[in-house]
Amino acid sequence: MLRFKFPPLKKLVIVLLCIISFRAGAQVTDTTIKKLGDTIKKDLTTAPDTVQHLHSKTAALIFPAALVGYGIASFVFHPVRRFDYYVNSGFNKYYPHSSGSIESYFQFAPVAMVYGLNLVGVEGKNRFIDRTALLGLSAAFAGGSVYILKNTTHRLRPNNANKLSFPSGHTANAFMGAEFLAQEYSGKSPVYGIVAYSFAITTGVFRMYHRDHWFSDVVAGAGFGILSTKAAYLVYPYVRNAFSHTSKAGKHTMVMPMYQDGVKGMSFAMEL
Prior knowledge:
Elements: H1 9-29, H2 36-45, H3 62-73, H4 78-94, H5 103-106, H6 109-119, H7 128-153, H8 169-185, H9 190-209, H10 215-242, E1 244-246, E2 252-260, E3 263-270
Antiparallel strand pairs: 1-2, 2-3
């Protein structure tokens, strides 16, 4: 009897991501690299008076909403749920040994790329303060929705570990970060978004490979992650600009968080 040996999934994915990351690195070499100290200082201390509103078409929300809808449909429509079992049985058949947690690191790769690119002088859409606030708001939206659903749907994981399967939190984090990078750098090169979403998709695949989630869990997690970041970029400008005003005389006032000598607080600045 002929037996076919499938190459390890992890090796194939890691090699592919290395190739993609190498090509993305070529984009950075074309950009003027500033001195590290000046770059950090500029990024940390400079903030615009207002944040540009996100000009996004409603159609951009259709795809992530459809992903969420697919995940929810798995609780109602039997064909959708049966496809979960089909995908899981395929992993069980071809990859019976599935220990590991590499996706726990992959999920944070897109966010790390955003701050890494800024560190080497490739500026994104926003400075450190606004960028970090946007990330925090995105994480709050994603984390809140995932936590509520995990504790209300009570879906059993494929590995029977617990009943917190739906939706996939790792996948939501990864796609939240991927959309975060896309929002910051899509205007510079589409390569950045491709690399970020490659990490996000890989995270979802490994969640199924390690039998932590069903296919519909991963699809819904991706939708929640993308929607959370898009929602943050839509809401944050209104919040941020409410604390930063320009008077009719052209003078600026700003309220910002501060941290100095171990003391946290708020700072108020007014142009006289």
